Amino acid sequence: MHRQATAAAFAGLAGFAALAVMTALAALVSPAAADEAGWAALRAPGTHALMRHAIAPGTGDPDGFRIGDCATQRNLDEAGRAQAARIGAAMRERGIPVAVVLSSQWCRARDTADQLGLGPVEDEPALNSFFDDRGSADTASRQVTERLATLDDRKAVLVTHQVNITALTGIFPASGEIIVVAPEADGRLAVRGRIRTD
Questions:
Q1: Helices assigned H by DSSP within 72-161
Q2: What is the pLDDT of residues 142-165, one digit of tens each?
Q3: CATH of 2-195, one of 3.40.50.980, 2.60.40.740, 3.40.50.1240, 3.90.950.20
Q4: Across the strands, what pairs with 198?
Q5: Nearest Cα residue to 155 out of 181, 188, 127
Q6: What are the sequence ranges of the domains in the chain?
Q7: Which pLDDT does position 20 carry in this prediction?
Q8: With contact defined as beta carbons under 8 Å apart, do 38 and 180 qualify?
Q9: Spatial distance between the Cα atoms of 165 and 179, rounded to a whole number of angstroms
Q10: Of the chain's two ends, which shows fewer C-beta atoms within 10 Å, N or C?
Q11: Residue 160: exposure state from Cβ atoms within 10 A (0-12, 13-18, ≥19)
Q12: Which of 83, 107, 101 is closest to 177 using CA atoms?
């Protein structure tokens, strides 16, 4: 009887250990699998890439920053420029049919959009950061969804900031992360996937 209980205990421990190993392996594999699902979602008709600007060390902007004067702003570093170039290359390699590139007017967003190398970049003030003006979040978010509704079947990359993406999707993205979104009939954005680029 004691031997049977011991054998059952060992079997239970072995099962638990196997489950722990499978869970650990899933944790190692799932980010890449999630990214591939995100790329597939981005290739699908009706979706767009909502992207946080690439790596720009720091938070917010210095006091007295001015749009159009990059010397007064927080900017991409070398790692950020390289990250943006890799993201653009990955989009081209995967055949993402980008037709429109829209960007915040902040230098770190505009530089990210330029470094993607996906075509002409158009300033979109609705994508500007409202980090220092949270009261404008609803208006900016509405303007973004309205702009997407004008694109018909053209796929867009929108380069913006963490606060804007969080307001639109509820997600706190990493630098350079892409949230794959699709406009819905009620004016909101549905999240179809995530692509972590580094």
A1: 78-93, 107-116, 137-149
A2: 999 999 999 989 999 999 999 999
A3: 3.40.50.1240
A4: none
A5: 181
A6: 2-195
A7: 43
A8: yes
A9: 8
A10: N
A11: buried
A12: 83
Residue with tokens 């208006």: 139
* Alpha helices (H) along 94-179: 107-116, 137-149, 162-169
Token look-up 């404008």 returns: 136
CB 131 within 8 A of CB 163: yes
- Tokens found for residue 176: 């350079």
| Single-letter amino acid code for the residue at 167 | A
CA angle 107–145–155, rounded 5-degree value: 75
Single-letter amino acid code for the residue at 61: D
Report whether 58 contacts 96 (CB < 8 A).
no
CA torsion, ordered 71, 86, 34, 56, to nearest 10 deg: -10
Question: In which residue are the tokens 């990059």 written?
Answer: 70
Residues 161, 120, 44, 177, CA torsion sign = negative
Contact predicate 191/171, CB 8 Å: yes
18, burial (CB in 10 Å: exposed 0-12, middle 13-18, buried 19+): exposed
Q: Which tokens belong to 156? A: 């867009």
Strands 178-183, 155-160: pairing is unpaired
